[in-house]
Amino acid sequence: MHEYNPLEIEPKWQAAWAEAGIDAVDAVIGDTADSLAAKSTYYALEMFPYPSGDVHMGHVRNYTIGDVISRYKRMQGFNVLHPIGWDSFGLPAENAAIKQNSTPANWTYANIDKQRASLKRLGFSYDWSRAVITSDVDYYHWGQWIFLKLWERNLVERRLSPVNWCPSCTTVLANEQVLGDGECWRCKSHVERKELEQWYFKITDYAQELLDDLDTLDGWPERVKQMQANWIGRSTGAEVDFVLCDASGEPTKETITVFTTRPDTLFGCSFFLLAPEHPLALEFVAGTEYEQDVRAVIAEAASATAVERSKGEREKHGAFTGRYVVNPINGEKVPVWIADYILMDYGTGAVMAVPSGDERDFAFARKYNLPIPPVIIASDDALFAELDGKRERVVNDVPWTEAYAGEGIMVQSGEFTGLAGGKDSAGSEAVIVSLEAQGAGKASINFRLRDWLISRQRYWGNPIPAIYCDACGIVPVPEADLPVVLPLDVDVAKGDKLAAHPEFYDVTCPACGKPAHRETDTMDTFTCSSWYYLRYADPHNAGVPFAREVANTWMPVDQYIGGIEHAILHLLYSRFFTKALRDAELLDFDEPFKNLLTQGMVKLNGETMSKSKGNVVAPEDMIALYGADALRVYILFMAPPDKDLEWSQSGIEGISRFLNRVWRAVFDLTGEVVVDSEGIKLSVYDETLDAAAVNERAAELNRELHRVIGKVVSDIERFNFNTAISAIMELLNTIAGYLKVPVAARDAELCNRAARSLVLLLAPMAPHFAEELWNEVLAGGVTGGAGGVAGGAAGGVGEGTAGGVTADDADNNNAFDSVHKQPWPEYDPAQAQAATVELAVQVNGKIKARITVAVDASESAIQEAALSEAAGAIGDKPVKKVVVVPGKLVSIVV
RNA sequence: GCCCGAGUGGCGGAAUGGCAGACGCGGAGGUCUCAAAAACCUUUGUCCACAAGACGUGUGGGUUCAACUCCCACCUCGGGCACCA
Questions:
Q1: CA-CA distance, A894 to A888, in Å (whole number)?
Q2: FRET partner for A32 with CA separation of 20 to 30 A, picked from A11, A79, A143, A433?
Q3: Residue nearest to nucleotide B26 (CA to C1')
């Protein structure tokens, strides 16, 4: 036996696999074009890395999970696409370039080289021939092409809007890129609001479908779907048109529309609110006595930072504009105020205030002494009789001390009084019908989701293919002129930008030929990551981003794996892209990712590992100590994949020990007397075992083999890698018990099968380890060793066709018979059963005895045995009931 | 405030309503060794000197022959959203 030396065998097999092209989907060893076509496809995908530096433990975890799934599926006979690439545009490259006086490209590509080497060192089975790097012209060319397709489909728009501006990154951000407390997702600086003209993708056109199709994503975590649903934020209700009055208070022909989820409370509207940014606000008060107060509120609201706004219950400020509007439901004139809690970018920026039914309006009414007419009361409320039918308004001394926003009965609501009120209630519907009849409103749906702001005032990104012409306006770059190449001689370290490169932006208008100006903003990096999974399917296509039929073959992704932090960002954008590309007839499916696994973080001392905290455990250090396989197995073993895990150094030593034990056991199973490095014999036999004891151990091992293979299958299918590994450990423990049997008394077939199964089960998780054992000890049958266990007789379960050399071997020139080309071991649940089982006997819920019965014993026989065995505990108390749970226990109630 | 998760030994974690704590780490004792490391064996939820027994899955109730698991109420921690009309 040679020692298990991961540092020697891992690079060896990595080189051998690379040479044999074992992981490329279209060059799989032993597969012909026909056999490949006959296989089902399986697309396993992990979120590609940003090349920020070294590979860290989070990557190791993410990619190990994906690799296990890929290798397992290959052994199950699928043709597996398992690609990798880099999301390589983005701001960190610019910052690093400035810091190191380098260029973003140099920094990025150097990091990619470093990460590629690390990923290869970890033994991940990627099809490297398909690697996609988003900052390569060959890739971003097609990002521009897709941009033009979306533009053709009217999904691209340049418009003036309030935007989020990060002063530190000196660029605008999408809504999704502003964290809950108003911080930039990347640098955590406080985001400012600005009014700028920017490029948008009209993701809101798909708001309803993005929401509806969440229901079809059965393979997604509920949590992620919930987060997306909240983010999309659909509200149903009505649009109501209020008639504007002129400065003298006379109704005009103009109306102003509000959105409400509670049309049933329309009679309770006692004032009307505009957002401070609303264009009508200043128009109303210009030159009036109200102007000063209104301007003060506007100024105060504008200066409020995101932090202040996020503090929840904030003192509300407002001012009367001097104007009135007419409530269409009852013709009442109500005053128009501005209020700083009204958001310009939700609904219409104008709101009907119902202080009795809305906490915020209530607080505002109290503060400014506005009427609070009750219109909804709980059905059992005594006020009903008192209020019903009365039209007088109760002012500030209403019996209510707070707003009532729940469901109830409409009161003081004219013809609608007595109807059920609430969101989407009968009362709401009746009010909408009435409004529609008089042309003053309609049913409506509002989304919280905003369009996706995709332009960035940064250099290191995909150039937006648009040209500004004084004569023609904004003109798309013609498809034939693509790609718009990002110049590499921009020296960001010296503060250089695209906007300072005339050779980039001085162009002629494609429409009229006159001098024009190229767009110097680049696209959000999230546009690059919104379709990379499609490019993997057809990575070298030089005519289109991907061929439709090829995309249809591999997509949707069967299993996507990545961090929860993309629950809204990347995962929502990618869904949008897929739907938009489908409508552009470029592909034929609705959702990109059929199944999603969000893996937990790797922590140290309860904190996320980060360079700035200095608490990073470097994967390279662990590989140097224990090897890549031990690291892979350990990270799988520590916790279920979707939970955060706490790094512990001593645990990986345990896994290293486990692999060493397996190593020795495999040799021992061949009959070889295993010795340690100093020649001390480790194989120890128990010569006292008689034939019956040997047979019992053999039967136990056989049962355990069938049980564990079945367990590993079901655990891997559910991604419970930790329990799959536990089960393999249990198998090893049983094997260790059998290895006490002297070599001459062992069952050769059983030893062979046990060794092979052990190695095959570990192959997806510890690929080099398994490959070495397979090739050095097992391929071609177990033949080596002092005991001379004969190989080739492998029948039974263990391995379908794997009798050693596969039939395809002759057809190709690979020098080895890879364990990763073997079929997954089969198992027979019936053989996992022992002939007899021990049952616990409970008397009134307490275990009082144990009985051993045949596995197929009849219920009455079991009952009889249990009653006699537990007779002492039962005593003379009458037996009321007996429950027999086959294989488990007997419960006796006395 | 609203919406999700999660609370099990010293630690990581197991348990289609059916013997709680699998598997591993750590600890204790032992074998081997001059010694140590490695390896192997035994042991390891708590209480009790041992045994017998009792108690044990955040808390309190409930359903059930049987509850970590299901139901109700609550506590704690983590995450997301939050003036969205």
A1: 20
A2: A11
A3: A650
AA identity, residue A827: Y
The answer to whether strand B lies under 7 Å from the CB of residue A739 is: no
Q: How far, in Å, CA of A846 to CA of A894, rounded? A: 12
Per the CB < 8 A criterion, the answer to whether A244 and A328 are in contact is: no
Q: What's the CA–C1' distance between A604 and B67, in Å? A: 35
Would you say the C-beta of A19 is within 7 Å of strand B? no
The length of chain A in residues reads 894
Nucleotides of strand B lying closer than 7 angstroms to a protein CB: 3-5, 11-15, 18-20, 22-26, 32, 37-41, 54, 65-67, 79-85
Mean pLDDT of chain A: 87
Predicted confidence band of residue A118 (pLDDT cuts 50, 70, 90): very high
What the block records as the tokens of A581 is 């590309």
Q: Which two tokens stand for residue A486?
A: 């990002």
Q: Is the CB of A70 under 7 A from strand B?
A: no
**Is A256 (CB) below 7 Å from strand B?**
no
Q: What is the pLDDT of residues A843-867, one digit of tens each?
A: 887 888 888 888 888 888 888 888 8
Q: Taking the model in full, what pTM does it have?
A: 0.91
**Is strand B less than 7 A from the beta carbon of A316?**
yes
Answer yes or no: is A640 CB < 7 A from strand B: yes
Residue/partner pairs of A793-796 with CB below 8 Å, 24 or more apart: A793/A748, A793/A749, A793/A752, A794/A749, A794/A752, A794/A753, A794/A756, A795/A749, A796/A749, A796/A753
CB A571 within 8 A of CB A526: no
Torsion from C-alpha of A489, A494, A495, A496, nearest 10 degrees: -20
User: Is nucleic acid strand B under 7 Å from A889's C-beta?
Assistant: yes
Residue A713 CB in 7 A reach of strand B:
no
Three-state secondary-structure class, residue A452: strand
Banded model confidence at residue A440, pLDDT cuts 50, 70, 90: very high
Reported as a single tens digit per residue, the pLDDT across A785-836 is: 333 333 333 333 333 333 333 434 434 445 688 999 999 999 998 888 888 8
**For position A30, what pLDDT does the model report?**
56
What does A142-174 look like in DSSP terms, one character per residue? HHHHHHHHHHHTT-EEEEEEEEEEETTTTEEE-
Q: What is the mean pLDDT of residues A14-25?
A: 87
- Closest by CA position to A278, among listed A327, A345, A323: A345
ipTM of the complex: 0.94
Phi, psi (rounded to 5 degrees) for A560: -110, 140
